[in-house]
Design brief:
Oligomer: homodimer
Number of helices of chain A: 25
Strand content of chain A: 5-15%
Strand order of the largest sheet of chain A: 4-3-5-6-7-8
Number of strands of chain A: 8
Largest sheet of chain A: 6 strands, mixed
Structural class of chain A: mainly alpha
Radius of gyration of chain A: 31 Å
Helix content of chain A: 55-70%
Largest interface: A-B, 64 and 64 residues
């Protein structure tokens, strides 16, 4: 029972049957065909040799199948994580060198180890600190960066850089070296792939395919583009015209590799590895939860960390680079009928066969085609509408999303995502440091109390009932003192202040000191301090302090009770003169 | 009117009269006598030449008198800021060198510029992020560090270090070089000063002095110790016995100095300067507010930033080092009858005279005596009871205070205070990421709803009313989804969910997406989602989204109204069978 919690394979494996096998096998064939070009393309994006992309899709898929909880998630290289890999490793070594490949292995190892540690200590909730606007902004900006970085392959020039400015400057500087034959190939491939997105599916349907088959058929577009352009290069010897090709790719199963554990390398990669782990986890879990919700299956976030951690360790020891659950590959897997993670294992087998037998066929594959598949894939991630939605909804969210987009573009992926998280947190802290407070009065005919400025309510002149709309803690403790002084200042007839604690979810030691100070100051002015609607957890806390002993007033269960009792105290004196 | 807001001197200066002058002049004489040993001692602590301590008390006091809002605050070198100066500058240059003095000037300049900038942009609220436990822990740990760092002067040995471990290791290593004559002097001075704290005041009262004069008389203890030990060194030529003395001190008014603006130096000092600014500001404003409260005067935090900023710039250009409002000197100033900041100006005049004429007299002053005055002063700051108070009140506060104390002691002042602030913030974020939620029911006979687990309340089987005890924002958005699923799971008869938003002070874009997802998921299960007690600011926000259009249920003003209406809907069907 508990063992299958940590090894989900024991759960679904026990009930594996013929139906599941058929579904999984069909899905695996389709996914394998789709993954070959995608893996090569993301290896190119990550700055790795093409075969690394295929290796990174074999062992990781198998490990995820054992430890992961999603039935349909397909693990391997994905666009954003490949971009982050290129940014992190590109700072340390030159792409194409042995040092670059070694650093990528170490990055995968660190990322795997961190994911495992996060899972072990049940720290999956940390991913929640990446707010929705930050993720949306980051993915959009990454898509733009990735598309820009691939332009050099379409233009057939050398260019580099990890920020939009660097990339565009470098492209501009090399613009004279443009290769027209490459441009012709690249632009045709891009145009074809854009057409495939919109036009191939209706065409296939007109030829009589069912909607599901037409959908899957449309996803083979990249394979068609690759076959056509590879044949063209081979037939017309376009290599001699300066078209860059993939070239020699070893025919081999994934090799056993050992990441470097040099302390210097590790210290350079530890921050990028953490960011890659968290971004990869967030991307993967969103895909997994979306697919699971459709079939009412359950995803355990902490077990997902274990699954992704194991997959990244597998990548580190088999010549890969950091991986995560990818959106497009998982959706294809799901649509093609995958029933269990066994589909992943079959896909891994298919890719292993490809690595052994098909690599000579891609010798003449032009890099421009791979770049075209990347550009078309990532531009679908770019969605600037999040800026408008955030602006309409709240300035705080807009600040977070715009900082994330801007800094990702001009300062790179690591700075961008970090700045986004930090901005979200700072904006939150700033807002809670100046909480909203409202003087409240009774909504006539009810026991309900509302803001005097927004509702027609009844108040008593000698009682100030102040609703504090925030937990009281150190950033706003002193602010409460100031505000209370302001509210109390222009009420000379005041005898009682009631703080309505309905929205106070916490009181820390700093706020306790402020409450004690307020109580003492009001006592000197001859005013009593009461509290109302104090919630259970806050009351438990206050009971452990001296505030309740020193409090000049009472604690009322409800604000209604407070108002009634403070009113009744007055009544005996004023009733005769009424 | 508005000019006197920025130059408070225009306000009190206009009404300056003979009574105020007498009070100020008397206070100035007493404070001057007390400040001479204190300034020398804190210069020693900061690693600066002794005269720098006096210089740092002259121009800064005058500038603060022009811009500051406190009537009694006395600005100059204080223990904690001097320790932080030694830690920051000690990383850059060797104490006793010209580079050390130059770096201290730059540190004062940066700190002054930052304080002015914080004041200009009205950022005084940033100081609130130093929670009470963090400040208390930091002051206590700094007191221990300072006392430990002065032991070498009492023992007459060379030792160094900026953390407790470094200091104790260094003391241990040099223990063989102990100078017994220095120990005799240092221990006597320390014992005398401890006795003065407790015993001198009653003695003076027995000799017929009034309580206030006895109090002030007791504060001259350090002067007595200095006179006695200086005479002893001079009369018995103790210098020849190896007793370290202050030596040659220039007879001069504060010199005009120019801080270094080397970019390298500035980049090394910018973080320490920020920490010194904020710690200094917090210490100063607490003292100012305590003294002002007694006389019902008002302190403007942002104007205080200007005052302290100007004082630090003055220190930077007149041979000083970072300064702030000190507790003991301000209390003496206040007790001695200071009426206005003019008392500070008179004190500055007194110290200028001392710098011109008295410095030859301190040639034979033993450093051990200065160390003794420091030790006795700072040990009164050490108060470990904050640990117990925090532990009793909340584990979060205890975490913040213990991290601050521990890291200040073992990793130094800058790391300590930063770690304390970061810990407070992280603990807060962690808590808000897993908010308390309570199923609520009606308290019988009222319109008030409370937690079903804590109170005897009435509920309806087909309605789940869930009170969310936290603002909904990105760290807890997904948690709400999970928790709602948990609460709803074991209620098959459920038709309506009411989220009680009384304690929800904010809804951000991530939480909005979660609410939309919850609404959609409940709709699929045939359950309506309602909100109740949504506060004005939150409602304004929700109106700008699509949630209200899509919401399957209603928005109720109060939870009472929600319960009544949902109950009434049922009544027609069930009434006949009742």
């Amino acid at each position: 029972m508990s063992l299958s919690r940590y090894f989900p394979i024991l759960d679904w494996g026990r009930r594996y049957d013929h139906t599941a096998f058929t579904g999984d096998a069909v899905a695996a064939v389709i996914v394998t065909i789709m993954l070959i070009p995608q893996s090569l393309a993301y290896a190119l994006l990550a700055g790795m040799p093409p075969e690394a992309g295929i290796y990174a899709s074999i062992a990781p898929i198998i490990l995820y199948a054992i430890f992961g909880t999603s039935r349909a998630l397909a693990v391997g290289p994905v666009a954003v994580v490949s971009l982050m890999t290129a940014a992190a490793v590109g700072n340390i070594a030159e792409s194409g060198t042995a040092g670059y490949v070694a650093a990528a292995l170490t990055l995968a190892f660190l990322s795997g180890a961190m994911l495992l540690a996060l899972g072990l200590f049940r720290l999956g909730f940390l991913a929640n600190f990446l707010s929705h606007p930050v993720i949306a902004g980051f993915i959009t900006a990454s898509g733009i960066l990735i598309a820009a970085s691939q332009l050099r392959h379409i233009l057939g020039i050398e260019a580099e850089g990890h920020t939009l400015i660097e990339i565009l400057t470098s492209l501009w500087a090399h613009l004279g070296e443009i290769n027209l034959m490459t441009v012709a190939l690249g632009v045709s491939a891009t145009a074809f792939l854009f057409w495939v997105r919109g036009g191939l599916k209706p065409l296939l349907r007109r030829f009589g395919l069912g909607p599901r088959m037409a959908d899957i058929g449309a996803r083979t577009g990249p394979v068609l583009a690759i076959v056509a352009t590879t044949l063209a290069v081979w037939a017309f010897d376009l290599g001699a015209w300066g078209v860059a090709i993939v070239g020699e790719v070893p025919q081999s199963l994934p090799p056993l590799t050992l990441p470097s554990f040099s302390p210097e390398l590790i210290s350079q990669l530890v921050v990028p590895a953490l960011l890659i782990s968290i971004i990869g986890f967030v991307e993967s879990i969103s895909v997994a939860q979306t697919l699971a919700a459709n079939k009412r299956q359950r995803i355990d976030p902490n077990q997902e960390l274990t699954g992704l951690g194991a997959a990244n360790l597998a990548a580190a020891f088999t010549g890969g680079f950091p991986v995560t659950g990818g959106f497009s590959r998982s959706v294809v897997n799901y649509d093609a009928g995958a029933e269990t993670p066994a589909a992943g294992v079959f896909t891994a087998l298919g890719l292993a066969l490809a690595a052994l037998f098909l690599t000579p066929l891609i010798h003449y594959l032009p890099k421009a085609t791979l770049a075209a598949t990347i550009i078309v894939a990532v531009l679908s991630l770019v969605d600037l509408s999040i800026l408008k939605r955030a602006w309409d909804f709240s300035r705080a969210d807009f600040a977070a999303v715009s900082v994330t987009i801007l800094l990702t573009l001009i300062a790179g992926v690591e700075t961008g995502v970090t700045a986004g998280v930090v901005t979200s947190i700072l904006v939150h802290l700033y807002k809670t440091s100046r909480p909203h407070m409202a003087v409240v009065g009774r909504v006539p005919g009810t026991e309900h109390f509302r803001n005097v400025l927004r509702h027609e309510v009844e108040t008593q002149p000698h009682v100030l009932s102040l609703r504090v709309d925030e937990s009281l803690y150190f950033p706003n403790a002193r602010y409460l003192e100031d505000q209370l002084a302001t509210f109390a200042a222009d009420k000379p007839e005041l005898t009682d202040v009631v703080l309505v604690f309905a929205a106070v979810n916490e009181v820390d030691l700093s706020a306790l000191e402020s409450l004690e100070a307020i109580n003492a100051r009001l006592r000197e002015a001859g005013i009593r301090l009461h509290l109302s609607e104090v919630k259970g957890p806050v009351m438990d806390r206050l009971k452990r302090s001296h505030l309740l002993d020193e409090l000049t007033g009472k604690i009322f269960l409800s604000q209604h009770e407070a108002a009634r009792e403070l009113d009744a105290e007055r009544k005996p004196a004023t009733a005769p003169s009424d």
